[in-house]
Amino acid sequence: MVRRVAVVGAGCSGLACIKICVDEGLEPVCFESSDDIGGMWNFRETPEPDRTSIYRSLVVNTSKEMMCFSDFPMPSDYPNFMHNSQLLQYFRLYAEHFDLLRYINFQTTVRSVLQRPDFSLSGQWEVVTINKNGQEERHIFDAILVCSGHYTHPTLPLSDFQGHETFSGRCLHSWEYKDANAFTGKRVVVVGTGNSGGDIAVEISRSAEKTFLSTRQGAWVLGRMSTNGVPLDIAVIKRINNVLFQLLPKTLVNWAAERALNNKYDHILYGLKPKHRHMERNLMINDDLPGRILQGAIVMKNNLEGFKDSRVVFEDGTVEKNIDAVVFCTGYIAKFPFLPSTLSEGPYEEVTLYKRAFPPSLQPPTLAVMGLFQVKGPLMPTVEMQARWAVKVFLGQSRLPTKEKMLDVIESERRRNMQR
Ligand SMILES: Cc1cc2nc3c(=O)[nH]c(=O)nc-3n(C[C@H](O)[C@H](O)[C@H](O)COP(=O)(O)OP(=O)(O)OC[C@H]3O[C@@H](n4cnc5c(N)ncnc54)[C@H](O)[C@@H]3O)c2cc1C
Ligand SMILES: *[C@@H]1O[C@H](CO)[C@@H](O)[C@H](O)[C@H]1NC(C)=O
């Protein structure tokens, strides 16, 4: 009988999980290591270890209509695409409306989550936490929802680049980047064309002397605005489109989408043309990048190869001199240091999860990881659905397939992802 559920983290995933546990008659207890809710949307002036960190100007890339929780619309005076501080405010309103704060223990870090000796019968866990006075506490729970975020550990591949130790400028990861103040009048290379790379290059280019944006694979770049000025995700994420994507040949869909994009700005002329097709990877959402390229404020570069003193060398042999700083927007890896290492089964030394949520060999299935996925749309309502499913599995109202079946699914999804 599952009753008490530990929720690790009070970001938007954690808040949704608390709400859904209460809906299902469970007793959630949430542990949050910081002193506030909101997770990565709670902007801090300095990045904190093991936690996601955002830049001051960050504006969401999904519209308010699509990203709100199903039972709590966004305030009507919000713009369609809001600043990060307004999204945090929305999460405050959500927590207040459903009275969620009373389930949260702030400044309490989960150190470890361990199966109890009688786990195969009870499904219970022992959770060790450290409170704000440094005291260790032990708790027993019937189930665990892990909502600790996954943009937490920056990957800075410096040693991949020849001569990096000779570089006289500053190297930093986007995790450390807050605003463009330090880059006024400077010559800056931004590496990586994910969403952050595009945003940061555009922002720096407004005050820097010159900004170079280096890309390994190129990117299909879309604005937040679709036909008739409708928010992109509202225009695209529709059942009818899902049906069409399944019926029509992929090459046709790609051809049509790429043609429409190239009609706005030819991705070859703009130095953006990716090797991959439109539907194969995540797109870059950026309203300003093509304009900054058109004005010469941003110059596109291919893969970064190495450094020589103040010079930066690119794969095509070009060299940019007197570079003051390189900002690496090279992504993150997810780590769950508090989970038992036995959950990192399989050959890949990472937590192996069925549908990105359930460790396949846990019997009974009383632990799930939330929000550990990429969607071509907003994360919040997706996590809400995922949490409802997880709770139903805890309660035995929904069943997982056999371990063998789950491992098969994991492997085939993995193969598909690697291909992409
Ligand atoms: C730059 C950027 C922009 C994005 N923009 C969008 C967007 O526009 N739209 C969208 O849908 N998605 C966006 N995303 C995706 C984003 O991941 C989700 O929006 C979402 O905020 C993730 O929330 P979360 O609750 O899962 O994790 P987080 O917000 O990271 O929260 C995790 C929480 O867990 C706490 N925690 C961690 N470890 C422990 C521990 N051991 N003990 C106790 N507490 C712990 C942390 O302190 C934190 O409060 C963006 C991501 C990034 C990086
Ligand atoms: C929004 O930006 C985040 C962070 O870069 C990214 O993970 C997510 O996929 C983006 N969403 C969309 C719909 O492109």
Automatic annotation (TrEMBL):
<dbReference type="InterPro" id="IPR002253">
    <property type="entry name" value="Flavin_mOase_1"/>
</dbReference>
<dbReference type="GO" id="GO:0034899">
    <property type="term" value="F:trimethylamine monooxygenase activity"/>
</dbReference>
<keyword id="KW-0472">Membrane</keyword>
<keyword id="KW-0285">Flavoprotein</keyword>
<dbReference type="Pfam" id="PF00743">
    <property type="entry name" value="FMO-like"/>
</dbReference>
<dbReference type="GO" id="GO:0004499">
    <property type="term" value="F:N,N-dimethylaniline monooxygenase activity"/>
</dbReference>
<comment type="similarity">
    <text>Belongs to the FMO family.</text>
</comment>
<dbReference type="GO" id="GO:0050661">
    <property type="term" value="F:NADP binding"/>
</dbReference>
<dbReference type="GO" id="GO:0005789">
    <property type="term" value="C:endoplasmic reticulum membrane"/>
</dbReference>
<keyword id="KW-0812">Transmembrane</keyword>
<dbReference type="InterPro" id="IPR050346">
    <property type="entry name" value="FMO-like"/>
</dbReference>
<dbReference type="InterPro" id="IPR000960">
    <property type="entry name" value="Flavin_mOase"/>
</dbReference>
<keyword id="KW-0560">Oxidoreductase</keyword>
<keyword id="KW-0256">Endoplasmic reticulum</keyword>
<comment type="function">
    <text>Broad spectrum monooxygenase that catalyzes the oxygenation of a wide variety of nitrogen- and sulfur-containing compounds including xenobiotics. Catalyzes the S-oxygenation of hypotaurine to produce taurine, an organic osmolyte involved in cell volume regulation as well as a variety of cytoprotective and developmental processes.</text>
</comment>
<dbReference type="GO" id="GO:0050660">
    <property type="term" value="F:flavin adenine dinucleotide binding"/>
</dbReference>
<keyword id="KW-0521">NADP</keyword>
<dbReference type="InterPro" id="IPR036188">
    <property type="entry name" value="FAD/NAD-bd_sf"/>
</dbReference>
<keyword id="KW-1133">Transmembrane helix</keyword>
<dbReference type="InterPro" id="IPR020946">
    <property type="entry name" value="Flavin_mOase-like"/>
</dbReference>
<keyword id="KW-0503">Monooxygenase</keyword>
<protein>
    <recommendedName>
        <fullName>Flavin-containing monooxygenase</fullName>
        <ecNumber>1.-.-.-</ecNumber>
    </recommendedName>
</protein>
<keyword id="KW-0274">FAD</keyword>
